[in-house]
Each structure stands twice: as C-alpha cells, then as structure tokens.
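Practice problem: predict the structure.
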Amino acid sequence: MQNAATDKAADATYLSGLVVIALHLAYAIATVGGFLSLEGSEKPISDPWFAVLEVLIIALAPPVLIFFAALAHLEQVHRLWMVAAGILAAIALTLSAVLHAVLIVIGRGHPLAADGALLAFTWPSAAYAVDILAWDWFFACSLLCCAMGLRASPALIWARRTFLLAGLLALAGLAGPLTGSMALRNIGILGYAVLFPLAVCQVLLALRRAKDFWRA
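Answer:
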C-alpha cells in the first residue's frame, strides 16, 4: 500500500512538474514576443502579450501547488518542511492570481491602472507591492522550505541546491523596493522564474533516473 501511494505521488510530481515547466517556457516565449513588439525601450509590454502573460501567471498556480503537495508525499523528504513550502506557495500564488485576475478584469485602460494609481503595475503602487510580497517573500520562503525538505534525499541533492539558490535570489529581489532601485528586483525574477523551473526539471530527471529512490 505504501509503495502504491508513493508511486502515485511520484506520478503526480512528474506530471505536474511537466506542466510547470511548459508554462514557464510559454511565459518566456510570450515575454520575448512582448519585448520584440515594443516601439520603445521605456514603453511597457502591450496587449495581447501582456494579457497572455497575465493568464499564464494565473494558470501556473494549480500545477505548482500540485507539485509541492505531491512532492511532500514522497519518502525521504521532511514532510513538515514540504507542507510549509506548500502553504507558503499557496499564499504566494493566491495573492498573485487574484491580483492578475483583477488586472485582467479592469483592463489597462482603467483609471485605477493608470501610472501612479492604486493598481498600476509600476513601483510604487499597491498592485506592485502585492506582487513583490507574493513572489519575493512568500514564494521565496516556499523555495527555501522546499530545499530544507529535500535535504535527506541524496537523489535530489542538485534539485535541493537549486531550490536553495532560487529562494535566496528571490529574497534578494526585495532589495529593489527597499533601495528604490527596482532593477535589483530582477535578481529575484532570476530566482523564481529561471532557477525554480530548473529545480523542477532536476526533480523530474531524478525521478526518471531512479524510479525507486524514494523506497531506499
């Protein structure tokens, strides 16, 4: 029964991880498309690219949460740390999904989304502060907890290191709003938008290489 349950957890981890990676790749492609469509370096990404990015961020929430939940049910992981990672990720992704859903509904032409308004996606604004809180704090802490949860699994040592680095870089993104130099927030983006999917990929590769590592 234990092996069957663990097999299901491994399958869920693998399948949800594939979706997470696919959505990150789609986000990267849409981001490149948005930047290529810019008429000037100072202008924000316009629709439909911006709308696509918003939808992808919302769509990312379910597979990421399934991935963390399934990972917590593998053996040779510290479950309390993984549960903490899942809870923190749920807070981050809920904040992010609600924020971007609101931005989609009101549209970029709404007065509340204009430069300097409450929901403007520029700093300083309430909308941007929520996004920073979600990704550079709650999701960063989630990644660090995930790294702690994997510390007992030799097969996932590289994934653990990548989760740890991703979490630290995501936290470093807080330097942007704290110093007023928002270019520093790109450090955090490197953590959760680049290294996080890389860590997920490393987990999937470990599962493929040694399907029975969690039973050792």
